[in-house]
């Protein structure tokens, strides 16, 4: 089901404990590349950080198209697939702000500031994914 206006997908992505997204990009040779990333929501946009020199950082500079999958591995199973376009920022204030938010979301408020300082530094990228398509599947086995 395509569900850009269904608020359930945002609740699913934002739920705690936080689910990692599986991010799909395309390598320079055309091969797929999938890695887990920590994310935060800003409205409908999904944000994450990555190193500028990582495979995903380099892939995103070449091709802004991405897919992200969030899944619930507990029966009756569910998933949200987000296709979108990525934009990249190296603004130090935004990078620190979102690295702190993301770190706190996955590791707790008590570690947020330390993770923000570790991941919100030069050489890191803030990636904002604007969804172009959202697919929701609930109760896959039920």
List the helices and strands and how they pair.
Layout: H1 8-14, E1 21-26, E2 32-37, E3 40-42, E4 45-51, H2 55-62, E5 65-72, E6 78-89, H3 92-107, H4 109-119, E7 124-138
Antiparallel strand pairs: 1-2, 1-5, 3-4, 4-7, 5-6, 6-7
Helix pairs in contact: 3-4
Largest sheet: number of strands, sense, barrel closure: 7 strands, antiparallel
For the record, what CATH class applies? Mainly Beta
CATH topology: Pnp Oxidase, Chain A
User: How many separate helices?
Assistant: 4
H-E order: HEEEEHEEHHE
Count of the domains: 1
The helix content is 25-40%
- What's the count of strands? 7
Radius of gyration: 15 Å
- The proportion of strand residues reads 35-45%
Spatial strand arrangement across the major sheet? 2-1-5-6-7-4-3
Low-confidence stretches: none
- CATH architectural group: Roll
Arithmetic mean pLDDT: 95
* N-end to C-end Cα span: 16 Å
Structural class per helix/strand content? alpha+beta
What is the name of the CATH superfamily?
Electron Transport, Fmn-binding Protein, Chain A
Shape: globular
What would you note in describing this structure?
It is a single chain. The protein has 142 residues and is of the alpha+beta class. The chain has one domain: Roll (Pnp Oxidase, Chain A). It is built from four helices and seven strands. Strands 2-1-5-6-7-4-3 form a seven-stranded antiparallel sheet, with helices on both faces. A hairpin with a 2-residue loop joins strand 3 and strand 4. The protein is globular and about 45 Å long. The protein starts with 7 loop residues before the first helix and ends with a strand. The model has no long low-confidence stretch (mean pLDDT 95).
